[in-house]
Design a protein that fits this description.
Number of strands: 30
Radius of gyration: 22 Å
Structural class: mainly beta
Distance between the termini: 60 Å
Largest sheet: 4 strands, antiparallel
Strand order of the largest sheet: 5-4-1-30
Number of helices: 1
Low-confidence stretches: 1-8, 11-16, 18-22
Strand content: over 45%
């Protein structure tokens, strides 16, 4: 009888342990920002058509609870522009605040519309339901790509028209401009290293990546530049800080029918240097390293907003997957998405990729299967044309 009781007790304990290990993990909310530009379009000849201001929006989405069915948590009526890399917005690591820069405004000039630099940066409170505009700051002219450090207490903004980088302190829900760093050339985007001690700024028209030193709130540019590919628009760093990648657009923000590259920067070298270039396609613009550090993607325009009679015109753009193995970066596969893809956001676990298609006003949802990016067959319709997308800063 005692043996039977002992065996029964052991069986019960085993079943309890089994039930504990099989308890499903509840899905966690993960936020993503989408900034829609309703002012700019292109005609069949590839010429820009400008519309009036006042219709742009910033949407806050949850992609964590159900990765294949994003949920809109709020929509704010805020100005935004596609003119620049799709990284003019960011979410703090704790998902409490969002920063969104507006690069250009459209104004009337003698009966014609034209674009002029703006200097506004919007601060959005993500803790409220729905999210709300908390503050509007003035930074440099034509604020474009921006990033927040992993600690969540400092942000950098690349000001293209002012040839500068703005330094912002983040303290709780208060964001303050504390310094401006002269860069000597126009900069399109800036990204921190994971340890927060350096940053890299893309000198778009001079085809270089500038290294910045970060000591607390003091950001210094000591005139150290790296020669990237032609027209580096975007830069991201791996979570371990060993590599940085740049999207070398090749033609000042547009396709031209010629292949372009992603430059690979060895951040452990002294000084850091470009050690490789990977051919990805015509017109890489969006760029995102996976939170796992094992993959990255380059978003390829493929002439999808060019003249329809251009030899390099394609109705749809694409996404090229890159495999990262130590310091070796290789091209994996390519997936065609939809018209004029811009921003790309990875899910927190690196299993899903969200790509914003400007012309089609939607998001293509892709899945990572080993070292291959595959379509899920799922998409998500947006309120407007997605000019930029970003998830929370993870590295």
């Amino acid at each position: 009888m005692k043996l039977r009781s002992t065996a029964l007790a052991a069986l019960v304990l085993a079943l309890v342990a089994g039930c504990t290990t099989l308890t499903p993990t509840l899905p966690q909310r993960q936020l993503m920002l989408v900034a829609n530009d309703e002012k700019q379009s292109w005609n069949d000849a590839g010429a820009v058509i400008l519309g009036p201001m006042g219709r742009d929006t910033v949407q806050v989405l949850d992609i964590g609870t159900d990765p294949l069915a994003p949920k809109v948590l709020g929509t704010l009526q805020l100005d935004n522009t596609i003119a620049g890399p799709p990284t003019n917005l960011a979410i703090t690591p704790g998902e409490t605040l969002a920063l969104v820069a507006n690069s250009l405004n459209v104004v009337e000039d003698n009966g014609a519309r034209k674009q002029v630099p703006d200097n506004r940066l919007f601060v959005i409170d993500l803790t409220t339901t729905p999210p709300k505009l908390l503050d509007t700051l003035q930074v440099g002219r034509q604020p474009s790509g921006l990033s927040i450090n992993r600690a969540g207490d400092l942000a950098l903004v690349a000001n293209r028209a002012d040839n500068s980088v703005s330094v912002l302190r983040i303290s709780g829900k208060k964001v303050t401009l504390v310094d401006t760093v002269a860069m000597g050339d126009s900069v399109a985007h800036v990204s921190f290293t994971p340890d927060g001690k350096r940053a890299l700024a893309a000198k778009f028209p001079s085809h270089k990546i500038a290294l910045l030193d970060v000591n607390g709130e003091k950001v210094s540019y000591n005139k150290v530049d790296l020669a990237a590919g032609l027209w580096p628009y975007n830069v991201d760093v791996t979570p371990d800080g060993k590599l940085a990648l740049t999207a070398d657009n090749g033609n000042s923000g547009a396709s031209d029918g010629q292949v372009d590259t992603v430059s690979v920067i060895d951040m452990e070298a002294a000084p850091p240097r470009v050690v490789d270039k990977v051919v990805v396609g015509d017109g890489p613009e969006g760029l995102a390293v996976s939170p796992t550090g094992k993959h990255a993607v380059a978003v390829i325009l493929r002439g999808s907003n060019a003249a329809k009679n251009a030899y390099f015109y394609n109705r749809n753009g694409s996404v090229v997957l890159l495999k990262i193995d130590g310091k070796k970066v290789t091209r994996a596969n390519e997936v065609v998405v939809r018209g004029l893809p811009e921003g790309a956001v990875w899910s927190a676990d690196g299993r899903y990729l969200y790509v914003g298609n400007f012309i089609d006003q939607d998001i293509t949802i892709l899945r990572l299967d080993g070292d291959t990016l595959v379509p899920t067959g799922k998409s998500f319709h947006l309120q407007g044309h997605p000019a930029a997308m970003r998830g929370k800063m993870t590295h």
